[in-house]
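Project standup — Tuesday

K.O.: blocked on the structure for the chain from last sprint. Re-posting the sequence here as requested.
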Amino acid sequence: MNLEHHSPRQFELTVTDLKQWVYCPRIPYYHHVMPVEIARTYKMQRGRDVEAAVEAMEKRRGFRRYGLERGERRFGVWLHSAALELSGKLDLLIITEDACYPVDFKDTEGGVRYNHRIQLAAYSLLVEENLARPVPIAFVYLVPSRQLVTVPVGAKEREEVTRAIAEMRRVIEQENMPGPTPVRARCVACEFRNYCADIW
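H.V.: unblocked you, prediction finished:
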């Protein structure tokens, strides 16, 4: 008797999945396991508009604010890692002779959060695999305050990325809905709030 063997389904995660997993693990679950229809929000459109405006402004600036003498700017860089089965689009990558520096634009008043740090650590791993140059630090540009924040991307942050990817894959492969974020304030404006009946 022949038994059909089912191997785990192959799927690629994104850096956005990873950022959302840290913010609330149910968001990537809804994307990959139980796809639901979400409405296009004002915040999504504003994010695109802000990105275009910051990119235009960034092209006119020098590199001194990054602590660099010179470099090459690349906007909207798509990156893929076969090893991590992870991909993502980076807002800005600064390339020098010796290193690379990821830059992420954030339209937020709340400063740099933990999920932003994990996102940049993931981009750092992708950049190093694709360009074979080290990423010593990364940056977040906070649009409302026009503040540039330096973000460490050391061994600790990189280990947190690989651990989060493994946990997310396990949940998706086993199709087990994870618990919601413990920060209930995040649920108020979430586009998935109507699907989480257990938190209201």
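K.O.: great, moving the ticket to review. The chain is about 35% helix and 20% strand. The longest strand covers residues 72-81.
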